[in-house]
């Protein structure tokens, strides 16, 4: 089975990625602030479902598919980089909006919140690359079933991702109120998030 070192490595990568601003964080924060914590948690269920879709794909050997058809992986990577660049521009452009100060959104039913969370995660290039490129590096065929190791590593990422995203969704309102009382901090947060997203975009496109 998978080694403890591999699990620890995957946990560290998962924690670093979930704490980095991205589509999932921006969507969950905006929903939690504009429609309440319950909406944020329903959206989180959709995000979690997206994690499981990628996990099943990883267990089924999606990395092998991309190694056989490199153009598919390249297309996925460049599309994800472009999406992150778009999010970075939305934050950095004059008059841009912070994820913690979103524009009012219409109240959506639970089914739509779940679906949007799922789609947001499935289109998240960070998660796609995590499962396609990073997870296989922690798998050691000499230690037994590759599918079993992929499952254990993926579940580790899901536990960390859902836990941290849940904490963010639950505390988004408090963080938003804190930043709104401090306009300079809110502006700084917007620039920091935009810069980080732009950096990730460039890294995804060139790595």
What does this protein structure show overall?
This protein has helices at 4-18, 23-35, 37-59, 62-68, 70-92, 110-122, 125-134, 146-180, 183-206. By secondary structure, it is mainly α. It has one domain (4-94, 107-206). The longest helix has 35 residues, at 146-180. The radius of gyration is 17 Å and the shape is globular. The model has no long low-confidence stretch (mean pLDDT 79).
Indicate the topology:
Blueprint: H1 4-18, H2 23-35, H3 37-59, H4 62-68, H5 70-92, H6 110-122, H7 125-134, H8 146-180, H9 183-206
Helix pairs in contact: 1-8, 2-3, 2-8, 3-6, 3-7, 3-8, 4-5, 5-7, 5-9
Shape from CA axes? globular
Percentage of residues in helical conformation: over 70%
| Classification by helices and strands | mainly alpha
Mean pLDDT: 79
Tally of strands: 0
Number of domains: 1
Task: Indicate the proportion of strand residues.
Answer: under 5%
Largest sheet: none
Compressed to H and E, one letter per element, the order equals HHHHHHHHH
Low-confidence stretches: none
Query: Gap between N and C termini, in Å?
Result: 30 Å
Number of helical runs?
A: 9
**CA radius of gyration:** 17 Å
Summed up:
This protein has 207 residues and is mainly alpha-helical. 79% of the residues lie in helices and 0% in strands.
Based on the model shown, name its key terms.
single chain; mainly alpha; 79% helix; globular
């Amino acid at each position: 089975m998978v080694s403890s070192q591999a699990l620890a490595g995957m946990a560290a990568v998962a924690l670093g990625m979930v704490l980095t601003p991205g589509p999932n964080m921006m969507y969950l924060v905006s929903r939690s602030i504009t429609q309440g914590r319950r909406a944020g948690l329903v959206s989180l269920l959709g995000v979690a479902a997206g994690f499981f879709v990628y996990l099943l794909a990883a267990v089924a050997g999606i990395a092998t598919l991309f190694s056989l058809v490199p153009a598919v992986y390249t297309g996925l990577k460049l599309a994800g980089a472009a999406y992150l660049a778009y999010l970075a521009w939305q934050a950095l452009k004059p008059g841009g909006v912070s994820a913690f100060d979103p524009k009012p959104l219409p109240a959506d039913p639970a089914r739509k919140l779940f679906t949007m969370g799922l789609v947001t995660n499935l289109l998240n290039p960070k998660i796609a690359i995590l499962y396609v490129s990073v997870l296989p590096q922690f798998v050691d065929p000499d230690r037994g079933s590759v599918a079993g190791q992929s499952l254990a590593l993926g579940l580790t990422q899901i536990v960390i991702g859902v836990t941290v995203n849940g904490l963010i969704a639950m505390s988004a309102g408090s963080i938003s109120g804190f930043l709104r009382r401090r306009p300079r901090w809110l502006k700084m947060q917007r620039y920091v998030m935009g810069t980080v997203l732009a950096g990730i975009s460039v890294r995804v496109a060139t790595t």
